[in-house]
Amino acid sequence: RPPAGQGKGGRAAGSEAPSAMLAPHSTASVVPVSSLDTRSSPRSRSTSRSQTGLEDSFLAVGSTKSELNESWAKRNITQLRAKSRALCDSWRFCVLTTALTVYALFGDDFRLAVTHRAMDNLFNIVTIMCILVFSLEVIAASLGQEGYFLGFFFLLDFGATVTLFLDLTWIWNEFACNSADGGSGALKTSRAGRAGARAARTARIIRLIRLVKLYKTYKTTIEQKDGARQSTDLQNTMPGEGDEDEDLLADEDEDVDADSPLTPPLKHQDSVVSQKAEKPPKAQTAETRVGKKLSDMTTRRVIILVLVMLFVMPLFSTTTYGFNEFRTSGDIGVELIYDRFRQWCLRSNRSDAGAREPPWCLQGLGTPSDELAEGRYAERAWYEEYLLSYIYHHHLGDFAWRLYWIGFKSNSHTQAGYLSELVRLNQERFLGPYVLPAHRLSDWDSTFVDEGWQTTNTPLPDVVRNKLASPWIERCGNFVGVAVSAEVEDDASTLCSYEEELRCSEQWVYVPLTNSKWESDHVSMMFLFDSRGTTQLGAGLSILQTIFICFAVGIGAMSFSSDANQLLLNPIERMISKMEAIKDNPLYAMKLGDIEFRREEIENARRKEQLARMSRCMKLLYKGYNFKKVKEPMETVILEKTIIKLGGLLALGFGEAGAEIIGQNMRGGTAGVNAMVPGQKVDAIIGFCNIRNFTDATEVLKEKVMVFVNQIGEIVHGCVDDYHGAPNKNIGDCFLLVWRLSGATGERQRKLADLAVTSFIRMLAEINKSRVLAQYREHPGLLQRIPKYRVQLGFGLHCGWAIEGAIGSELKIDASYLSPNVNVSSRLEAATEQFGVWILISHFMVNLCSSELMTRYCRLIDHVTVKGSKQPIRLYTIDLDFLQLKVETDPVVEITKNRFKIRQLREVRKNEKWAEEFTVAEGLDKDKDVSAMRSSYDGEFFLRFAMAFRNYEAGEWLVARDTLYTCHYVPDDDSTVDIPTTVTEEEWPADGPTRALLRFMRQTHFHPPSDWPGHRELTEK
Fold first, then answer.
1. In the chain, count of helices (H) and strands (E)?
2. Which helix or strand (DSSP H or E) is residue 666 part of?
3. Helices 570-584 & 289-312, crossing angle to 10 degrees?
4. H helix runs in 836-897, sequence order
5. How does pLDDT run across 224-276, given as a tens digit for each residue?
6. What is the Cα–Cα distance from 376 to 373, expressed in whole angstroms?
7. Residue 974, CA distances (Å) to 129, 234, 535 in order
């Protein structure tokens, strides 16, 4: 089917489909001409081509469908993995799993310790929810996390989820509860249930692994927040923002007054910091792979150690193998009671011949009237006395278990009504003369309770006595019995009270074991105790045990890894964070040393503060504890400081232009260095600075010329840095200076242009005021070659695009800028000697500056084309008479040893220049040095020169000549009246641009060429 809007031929209406736009599969229908049979008819050839094309198309479509299906499957798997990873990382899902984990650890113990059996179904529902959520988490983690499936934590999570099935009472009751049939089986089941409960509690410890995972997630989040906050605090702390700096540096003997003029050494100690370094990189607080691996291995070993101890330690206990130290009163009392019952019922009529006959008590309700009747009455009385004594001693007291229920069963006589009448107490037909009247059942209390006994028994409640003397009507499986607990007040219910009130784990059964099978088949009894006291206590202790194990695992893991963290991992992570900072912003390496110094100072200050707060005894203990500590720095500390130094040297060596080279090589995964990184186009202000008479200075100073250049470079670099620039290149007697404009707004670019001009003005002032450089004015070798020698610099300032990158080869590279604009700036600096000025600025740069600075300080002096550029450039200069400045005579301000404070003071000064209320032109107006250097120029001079230049540019050279003759810095009052027509060169004004224009116009006798374009070519370099 052709696409919509196309005809049958598959082409769009009114257009031809170009061959380059054909689908890849359409090439399958193209048959080479050489493969066709030229002898066949055109029709057959057409049919052959059609069939071949259809076959290839079908093959292409089939392959395309398989590729699409494979791509669709991969895309779905990728989406499923991404969704699984997002689910595991979701904070909502984390909160849900945290809550369910807490329930999984403490829920079952809380159920046993606090709640009633009726609440079990509610806990079962929550447990099922835990199983489903944890299973979903295991599946999501298996899909979304690499290396999780079948790993250590997968096995523990899977085991923890499986153990939750044991918390379901439906499953646990089938596994450990089956006491309704009585006999020794009930006793064994009860013991197995209690042993299983202990094993289940031990297995539940496996779920602690979930808390370990949650703890690691919480710890990572807290460390990220703390790291980001600490990094921000260290980088944004400024002097004067609080008392922290003053308290920290109170022990400094030397300090710097922030309001006093800063000497060049203070200003230029650490000067190569560009605008990039002003912006701190993002805090890198992610755990390193080494730290993560070591932490995981430590956690695994601690967990395995705790689990092994919990599972193995019970094997060394005798109770694990079924051995008890002695039999309790519950065991012995049951045997005695059953023996008395046997004497009454099971033996009194038994003989060898009638061994297979049922006992007489099961043949009829009543005592036979024979010679054995009196004895049977007495045996029954003894049986009831033993039974009541047992009840009184165990139904209530200062012990955990309490007798709850008594029951009888007969396999030979299954009528429940018969047994309920047989076992009731105080019946005249069984006791005869020993029976008590119904209203005197309270006499039991006087018989079995005596305040003088060392063991205090508690009287039975009336309802319990009445139930014992009434038919025992409760049906519990094959047993009929009665509840002797005061909690069961309903004496008319036939429901099994202990099944309604007690859980399987809260029941403990005693049955007589000294009986034969014949005896147990005819009459068997069961005494069921309420063990909620020990069960609840055990559940509470289990909660405390779980909490203790949580702390044990946490503290154990932290204690095992604390030394490794302190001596290895933390230094490695700090190194990694510093490497990440250098990778993201290589120029930020200049600040790393200051931040590290700041951190050490903070630690020392805190240590001193803590020591000051200690008592004398604590100080002695503290000093004694730290006396034997090794003072030599660890290798990790040495390596960390080496990284800081190397980063600082890289930033110093490569500068702003080499930041991309450093960053790309740091981000690379190989050990090789790739210095040949492609450049990038940037907009920048380009300044060139040249030391005048440098050849003579080199020949005179010889090896000391390096000190000479560095003394000048210290001032140049410092002034550039103070005004947000970056020194780029030192070429012997020249300095390349750059202010990057890329990425800055129009207002910011204008401010940077003003700051660049101001930095050159400050360089001129500092060079001529420096006491260090003033010493060269008296150097005999320099004075012999150059009379009245003084250090002078020429400046060229231009702006435009440039290519920033590496220049050189793999053997040696320099990070710099390449552009015709760099060449223009160099030409402008070289032309300063022709014009007799200290600086030349292009009109592109002047247009970028603010109008206030341009109108107040910049003078247009020529319109030229420099070599290497065809575009005419208007040249500006700033008239400053540096001879008006005097060398500084004030005492040198002592430099503080605190490098961090030096950095902060410089940052404060630099940031003040970005304030909206700070205007560069107004700052220059208030500068005393600028005012002194401008005092040599009169306003009339600037007006006359501007008029002369306009005539010169318009071709009126004679008028321009006559006006230039009057351009003295301080014109005479009558010079406007009498303008000389012929003036010798010695009589020309001293102004350099004026003399340069006069010399140029004199070449053609002050007559412009016929094709004068308004500008000239600057031929000299």
1. 39, 14
2. helix 659-667
3. 150
4. 843-848, 851-857
5. 565 555 555 444 444 334 433 434 333 433 333 333 333 333 333 333 334 44
6. 5
7. 106, 66, 120
